[in-house]
Design brief:
globular; binds zinc ion; 8-stranded mixed beta sheet; alpha+beta
Length: 310
Amino acid sequence: MLNQINGLHHITSMASDAQSNNDFFTKTLGLRRVKKTVNFDAPEVYHLYYGDAVGTPGSVMTYFPFPNARRGRPGTGEVAVTVFAVPRASLGFWQERLTQRGVTNIRIETRFGENRLGFDGPDGERFALVETEDDPRDPWTENGLSGDVAIRGFHSADMRLKDTGASAELLRFMGYEALDQQENVTRFHIPGGNAANVIDITQVDAPSAEQGAGSVHHIAFSVDNRAAQKDVLSALRDTGYDVTPVIDRDYFYAIYFRTPGGVLFEVATNEPGFTRDEDTAHLGEALKLPSQHEHLRPVLEEKYLDPIRD
Ligand code: ZN
């Protein structure tokens, strides 16, 4: 069993419009945009990162906005709900705020004894806010939300799977332990992990999801550094997983593999982080391109990447 994984690093989804995606995460949810770059594999598309002040691993929601992309169809083999942690007694505030801003499908739920507020994102993607006690993480409060309500980072992610056995086994191999079960949902956590150390697996008999706008593209798990990542890579390959080589994503190093349940997993390093090429004070403001795409800047800015109004 591995002991290098800390919990979540980031979750990456697809959107249909960069501006409304940006407005939702910064203005409605109050996160900081910590990086404005492009999809390194398709540089005509933005890659937007939202999180806390510096994009601490475990707080980072990221998007590929493909203009006018067709919506995905929810189903199995995907992360169906992304869950953020908020302070105790803040759900009333959030319910009112999201209602006032026209957010849809707002619903109060209880899971494993926790109060949560579910709602949909701009592309119909599903989110929830969960009240947590004594979250040690500092929130970003510069977008108009005070510290007694602001999002702390991820709480968990909920994978919907048709066949859960092999994925549960994989999570255990990665260091997760089964914590609780409620109806068709099993909760796993990493003891001593980061504050985003919970994964729920929900067993559903439904057709496979079709990816599109609003779908989670992949879910990334955090390791401290490249040495830890190397150990994880070897162990996964020894277990039979078809894992990519290490890929330099400028702000972290990444490896990817498809899980038995269909979800794409990534293992990403906490180093070097989002302050690698920008001052903390101006994080996320300028369009940052990886060196291999810098020569494309004029054409990307002219033809493909509509400016985002903050
Ligand atoms: Zn990723």
